Amino acid sequence: MGFDATFVLVHGAWHGGWCWDTLAGRLRELGHTVRVIQQLPSAGPDPAELGDLRADADLLRAELDAVGDGDGVVLVGHSYGGMVISELAGHPAVRHAVYLAAAFPQEGESLFGLFGTEADWVAPGPGETLRVVEDRAVEVFYYDCEPAIGKEAAERLVYQSLASAATPSTCSGWGPIPTTYVLATEDQVLSPEVQRGQSQRASNTVEIASSHSPFLSMPDTLADILTGIASST
Fold this sequence. Notes:
The chain is an alpha/beta fold. It has 10 helices and 10 strands.
């Protein structure tokens, strides 16, 4: 391959770092260093313990601070994770930001503000939380995965805090740092049309013919896409 990159992977709402396991393995096989945010504070099994977007950003900031000097991080945010990585715009460790079927907010925009508050596969959870409707999870997130993989993933989903979706972004732009939007053309969570609107805010757009979860349905293809993005910076 001739080069290696450092990736930091940030999961989306209701998920955890487990969703990246297969992709992270593929990237490591290609010679890259991979760091995974294992659990954002806004997502978890205990509704009383969940944080908001600011808490998520603080955790990611600590991870980026720990990377130290070097060639820089390719920072990848999936879905709601795009809100989180946007809070770190300007961090000196980042050399490229990748939005994977993700929110790409501008300053003052919340997840609710970007995408609305209604989806028929989302329901109120206990306390101030949201949950994925149990019998809809595979259909919307993992329909193109192997059945066993989709079923296992659906069983691992947790609660997401309402506050994380309502907190406005402080992102004022990435400046000279390049950004790439990876658009999932068969997505049932964020429609391709919605993603195309978000992708207009990125420096570049790459398409992948997948559901909302290409890290599970086509990890080899996604690993190649991310390697290509890293090598272009």
